[in-house]
Design brief:
Structural class: mainly alpha
Order of helices and strands: HHHHHHH
Helix content: 40-55%
Radius of gyration: 20 Å
Shape: extended
Protein name: Zinc finger mym-type protein 1
Strand content: under 5%
Number of strands: 0
Number of helices: 7
């Protein structure tokens, strides 16, 4: 009836993770448990207090100001994710380490893509 998940390939160390999110991410990769893990992860990311939502909206309002209201949604989403991740990990942008794959992905062809609507109207 019970399954020993520590023997699964996703738990290579042979030990189960102590953090809930890491555990369920591993279970999600185990055949037959994807739906269960997705449900558990959804429960874990659901805010339980209004303070978390208030912080997120404060971050959004600080990022998208009247002077910076033309930012694309994808750009705004990326900035907020970066700021929230740094804040959650008690890190500062000064300490951020750039890895080579980031530099490979950060190219002018990616950063300055023209959308189809702009290209067709020009």
């Amino acid at each position: 009836m019970f399954m020993d998940l520590s023997s699964e390939a996703v738990f290579a160390s042979g030990e189960l993770p102590t953090k809930s999110v890491h555990f369920w991410e591993g279970v999600q990769q185990t055949p037959g448990f994807k739906e269960l893990a997705e449900s558990a992860l959804t429960c874990l990311i659901t805010p339980t207090r209004n303070a978390n939502i208030d912080r997120l909206f404060s971050l959004l309002n600080a990022t998208k100001t009247k002077l910076r209201n033309r930012r694309a949604t994808a750009t705004l989403d990326a900035i907020i994710r970066i700021k929230a991740n740094l804040c959650n990990n008690d890190e500062c942008c000064v300490d951020f380490k750039v890895i080579p794959i980031m530099l490979e992905k950060y190219t002018s062809s990616v950063m300055y893509q023209k959308s189809n609507t702009l290209a067709s109207s020009a």
